[in-house]
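Recall the central idea of this unit: under ordinary conditions, the amino acid sequence of a chain determines the structure it adopts. In this exercise we apply that idea directly, starting from the sequence alone.
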Amino acid sequence: MSSLEQLQHDFIHNIVNDKNNQGFLSELKTEKIPPELQLSIYQRNLSGSIQKTLQQVYPACLSILGEDFFHTLCYKYQNLYPSLDSNLNNYGNYFNTMLLGECSENTKLLGFEYLHDLALLEWHWHTCYYSSSVITFDFTSFSKIPENQQSKIIFNLNKSLSIHTSIFPVIDIWKDNTIEIPTTNEYTTPDNSLYFCIYQRALTPTLEIIDRNTYKILTAIKDKTDLQSLCHFDDIDINQALPNLLQKGWISGFSLLDKAC
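Accordingly, the structure predicted from this sequence is:
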C-alpha cells in the first residue's frame, strides 16, 4: 500500500470508528487547526448523516421511541456496526438485531418486544424501494426442460421480495406511525401469526398479506427446496400455487443442475 493509500485508509478508519490514532494525528498537524478538531468535524458530519439515514429508514421506530431515545440507539448502532459502504442507502440492516437485544436487556423497552419485527418490516420496505428491476421469468427455457429433470428444478425468488411472519400487529403499528400525524391505538395480539410479504410492483414497494401455505411455499423456495420436495408438502397443491406466484412475479427464475436459467 502506497503512503497516499495508507493515509486515506487511516483517515477513513479514524472517522468511521470515532477513535483517533495518535500516529495518524501526527500526519495532520498544521499550524492553524489541531488534528483532533479536523477529524471531529468529519466525525460529526458522518454521525449526523447516519442519524438522518436511520431516521429515514425507520420512521415508525422513530415515532414510537421518540427522537432522543432513537438517536441514542442510533449512536450505539453506529459504534456496533460502523458504515463500511460509501452508499448510506445500504446502511442499517442490523438495526432490528440490535433492537432485539435492547428489548431483552433495557427495562425502558418493556412491552416493546414488537420493535424487532417492526424494524425488519421497515428495513425490507426500504431495500425494496432500491431493489433492482424485476426480472421476467423465462418460460421458453422452462418449457424445454426434459421431463426426467423437472423434479430437480429450484426456483429463484424475485430479489425485491421479502417474506415475514409476526405474532404482533406490526402492519397496523407501522401504518399508524408512518402517517403525517401518528396515531396512538390499543393493539391486541392476533389470534394467529401474521404472514405477509413485501415486493416491488410497478417499481413501487408493496405489502401484501398472505396465508400460511403461501408463506410456507415461499420460505421453502427461499431455502432452495427442489420441485420434487415442494410437490410432497402436506395440504399444499403446488400445481395450483405456482401459477399464482409466477403471475405475481414473486418467482423470477430457476436453476437446474447448478445452471442458472
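The longest strand covers residues 194-201.
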